[in-house]
Amino acid sequence: FWELGGGEPYPVSGIHGTGLAELLEQLTPKLNYDDSDASTRIKSRVAIVGRPNVGKSSLLNQLTGEERAIVSPIAGTTRDTIDSTVEWEGKRYVFVDTAGVRRRARISAAEEKLMVNRAIKAVRRSQVVLLLIDAVEGVTEQDVQLGELIRDAGSACVVIVNKWDLVDGERSDKLYRQARDYVKENLPSVAWAPAIFISAKTGFNAKRIYKMVDDAQEQHERRVSTALLNEVLQEAVAWQKPPSSNGGKQGKIYYCTQVGRRPPAVAIFVNEPGLFPDGYKRYLEGRFRDALGFSGTPFRLIFRGKRVREAGSTLPYADG
Predict the structure, then answer these.
(1) Helices 110-124 and 141-153, packing angle to 10 deg
(2) What mean pLDDT comes out for the span 266-274?
(3) First CA to last CA across the chain, in angstroms?
(4) What are residue 99's phi and psi, to 5 degrees?
(5) Is the dihedral of CA 192, 194, 199, 201 positive or negative?
(6) Which residue among 5, 20, 105, 182 has its CA within the 20 to 30 Å range from the CA of 218?
(7) Which residues contact 52 (CB under 8 A, 6 or more apart)?
(8) How confident is residue 39, by pLDDT bands cut at 50, 70 and 90?
């Protein structure tokens, strides 16, 4: 091994751990790592997901400014998740390039299944997910399923419509508005996610992604006062009271409070949770979003039953 000219060799055993302590003693002084430096703190862990050949690796290279991932027109070139640390305007991000997620019906080899499972795990351990859409092919069934995966994982999300240079060479405002509405309509599970139209190949709009990631993460970690939440809830039920059951029993709302972040979760205390159908729950979520924002993050409402004696008085609408 001396003849290779690479310096002093260190014999180790990865299975038994032999020689690892000696290797670390030699390796650590060369890292020059200072944990007191605030710039070493990771601000966001961002997963890049999408169908095969949608431009995930090209986007990673554009964001890092280096050729860190192999780019090829052959779908499935990326076989594993690739972590890349990037510093931008004094903040440090970890971008995770994932293998293209295909429909399970098209996955036959064990290696393909492993690639998909690793991509799914990357979504679940990331704070923000960039969902890439091909501007030429539009939203597909697999894109919709990926959106549902992101929503169920509770991750913040930004929708990235790539290859926009192939669709709108003249950058028409009208076409942009139509495309933006199209994306929201066809990705209902992440309709709350902001969308940006880019070209990973030319770099058009790519650097704006950093600001969108910051904004989405801020909303994902946001906390709202109980007073403000109840003010919004009171106005919502004043406009539309909860529906009655077939037996004529009226749903009653007592109060609400935030019980979680990442994503934001609000518990609404009611007389009987079963009296509130999904349609009314979606109405309340919409009113909260209209009043408070929460763009780029899932927003969860949890209905909890509570007796009147425990809850105190109901919201004013119930007495009207």
Answers:
(1) 50
(2) 94
(3) 87
(4) -70, 150
(5) negative
(6) 182
(7) 75, 76, 99, 100, 102
(8) very low
Task: Name the nearest CA neighbour of 1 among 15, 11, 12, 13.
Answer: 11
CB-based contacts of 74, cutoff 8 Å, min separation 6 = 53
For residue 226, give both structure tokens: 């109980």
Query: In the chain, pLDDT over 90 holds for what percent of residues?
Result: 50
For strand 128-134 and strand 42-49, is the pairing parallel, antiparallel, or unpaired?
Answer: parallel
- According to DSSP, residue 201 is labeled T
Structure tokens at 193: 């996610």
The residue type at 53? N
Closest CA to 224 of 268, 264, 284: 264
**Could you tell me if 77 and 71 are in contact, meaning their C-beta atoms sit under 8 angstroms apart?**
yes
pLDDT at 305 exceeding the cut of 50:
yes
Alpha-carbon span 122 to 75, nearest angstrom? 20
Amino acid at 24: L
**Tens digits of per-residue pLDDT, 120-137?**
788 888 899 999 999 999
> DSSP H helical segments within the chain, as ranges?
20-27, 56-64, 110-124, 141-153, 173-186, 208-220, 226-239, 278-292, 308-311
**3-9 long-range CB contacts below 8 Å, 24 or more apart?**
none
Burial of 115 (0-12, 13-18, 19+ CB in 10 A): buried
- Cβ(163)–Cβ(56) below 8 Å: no
pLDDT digits over 77-89, tens only?
A: 444 557 888 888 8
